[in-house]
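Input sequence (75 aa), recorded before submission:
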Amino acid sequence: MQRKGHMLPVWFFIGLLSVVYGVILLWTGIAEWSHPPASVLSGLHPGFWGGLVLLMLGGFYSSHLRPGKLNEYRF
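Predicted structure, token format:
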């Protein structure tokens, strides 16, 4: 008896990449918090907030589209 192959959705891998990039951006945002670079909007700390958003979005995609989940891949 052969098992049918299971295809992973591309959004799972996009979620994983978003988690990795989010961690990198969040780390650099925390490191630059006390000494932000000289730019116009550096007081808003875009690296920190962008990393946090990527981390949350990537975590959402990765958790909802992980392999082995029993229900359909619908939001």
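Checked by second reader. The two ends are 33 Å apart (CA to CA).
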